[in-house]
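Page 47, continued from p. 46.
Same chain as before, 830 aa.
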Amino acid sequence: MSTADTTTARNTTLHRYIIGHAALALGVLLVATAKLPGPTGPLWVAIGMLVLYTVAGLAPVEVRLRSQGVQFAWGEAAVIIGLVVLPPSTMIWAAALGRLAAELIGRRPLEKLTLNVAKQIVAVSAAATLSYLVAGTEVDPFTVRGGIALIAATAVYALLAAFSVSVAISLANATRLRLMPLHRVELVAIAGNIGVAYASLALLRFDPRLLFAIPPLIVFLRVTYGYRLRTQTEREAWQRLAAATDRFSEVDLAQVLGTAVTSAAELFGADEVEVLVRLGAEPDGLARGDAHGVSWAGAAADAPAADEAQTIVAPLGGQRDTDTDGGPGELRLRFRGAVRLSDRERYALRTFAASLGTALRNAYAYAEAQRRATRSAHDAAHDPLTGLANRRYLLDAGEQVLREQPARGTQAMVLIDLDHFKEVNDTLGHSAGDEVLTAIGRRLATAAGADDIVVRLGGDEFAVLFVALPAPALAVHRARQMLATLDPPIEVDGIRITVGGSAGVALAPVQGGVGELLRRADVAMYQAKRDGNRLAQYARQRDTADIGRLALGGELRAALVGDQFTLRYQPIVELNSGRISAAEALARWDHPYRGEMLPKHFLTAIERSDLLPEFTDLVLDRALAAADDWARAGRPIGVAVNLSPRSLLDPGLVLLVERRLAAGRVPPERLTLELTETRNLSRLDTVDETLRGLRELGVRVALDDFGTGSSSLGMLARVPVDELKIDRGFVAGLVTSPEPAAVVRAAIDLGRSLDLSVVAEGVESQQQRALLFELGCPFGSGYLFSRPVAGEKVAELLAADTPLAPAMSNDAQVIRIPPARLTRNPRRRL
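Result:
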């Protein structure tokens, strides 16, 4: 059936009900007139009651509750007065004619007029009949019997009127009959009507003519009470609006929607509320519910169809937002009956909708910020290529595992290094290498247990932390299973690649936490590579690291704070004259109970800790302060400081050096930073940036231990330097073996061809000095000239201005290198 047919059928049924109700009222009116006592008493009394019923019908106060209007009428007061001052039949006619007059004066539609008059006749007739049966013709309201009769009659009148309205509403809306319960305010109004009626009856005892004063009194009460009721209603409405908007301070989107639905239903009396949300690129969302809570929430496209109802729509966020971007959504109020909002309600609705729009945007922005923070935290703890956890996550989560999981079993770390992975990159390119790494990561993650932590440490290194092994012996077995996942070939661009690996296993717990556990797995992995095996378990007796290193690591911070680190200076002399030309700063740790410790015993611990920047700052500060003291003594010479390769990864190193140069008042060309080449670091862009910054400061750079396995010509070509330092091992064999002599000669020739200064370390005999000088090496250091001494001793040697060794014979044939090479060479730049 179409909507038009449904509406027509509904109107026909309602029309029939009204006609039937009118016929019933006419029959009741005739029966009551015939059976109940007829007119007695003065005519003016009947006329007065007719006026009273007319005024009562014209002066209701109506307040909307949801989709229905609740009227606070004065019918009960008129009924009580009429039952006392008029016979039943007369009272019925007065009530019928009075309501008819009120409907005509109010220009009601014919159907509504007919229904209201019929309802009045039926309800008043029932009340009059009940009063007559209980108290007879004469009703004394101030007796128990009369009071019971009047209250019972009033109750019957109110119930029958409500029943008649309920039937009409159900027929008009085509819904099941539901008796409209008397609202709490209606009950208060009925009680007030009874009070007004009794007050009026008390006045009539003094003079019956005061009956004509009652209609004006009702009009006055209607105006006064209506004004107070509207004022109170509006005040409470604004208070509820303020309270509702205050609850929008929540930042959770679901809570904001729930508050919006329940608050709007309570504030505007809606039977149902919908909030349509349009925020960001997400699909439209919808929340639906009533004053009791949200009944549905989700995507608007998936929402079930709403019941047919009158809908009032308000855009969220204000008119400006609606004009620019369509606004964040809509607020929809649904009413089962016809409703027209007052001006105050429309303004309140706009205010509520604007506040809701702002709250939704704030909640969405907060949710977006939370999502971004979650993504950032995830990205910071995971490898972007493989999606596995990274070293940072391993260190944080692993520490928690070591603290909380020992009761569940054994923890172990396996570190896996891929074999010949560099060949994949060099042959097929880095994109192919990335595919291989991603495939390896997936295999390891699949083979790991649910609680295990799989990590890509960087490059081609992976680690797996076994969280809860039933027994320590299973660690090696599980590690072999992880290695076995590497065996199946990986197809990249149609090429099948087999990538093996070596692994080291270390058991927890150990002192030093996850960092030490990872180091031990690394030691075991290199043991496996050296032995030609795929897998090795950590053995302490094969760990070449100083057994006291862990203890030292815990004492480093106290040593820095307690001024336990000092510097000794190894003079660098001109081999020809024996005079001091510079000094190399060498760190010493004056340990409280271990005594003086050389750098080889503690530098590794510093490099593995987070104290390397502080240690570098301390060494630079003291070395430059000593250089400043030497310059004040009249002999400005340069100072060389050994720099850890890891320091080149610190983006703050250049600023640190610049700050220390300024504080020490030392020209930058007097500072030489000595580097030991490390293959991995020399290929990092970060290192290039740091070296470029140091060179731009004017600092000299020296390549230490040149000629050993840790340095290479590739490093020399990549990193421009000012100075080469020949390793002491070659100087020691210079006289006795031709191979070291060849290396020394090649280094000196390379320095000459590249316009570099050359310094030989470890010169301990006059014969070595002479041979180096003859080969063209201009500078050297070693015990032949001096052992490392304090800065004050260097100042004394400079003040004495005497050679540290006798000058060499002028007969030696050498190619002299200008002393200016100990300062920065302006021709060599990055």
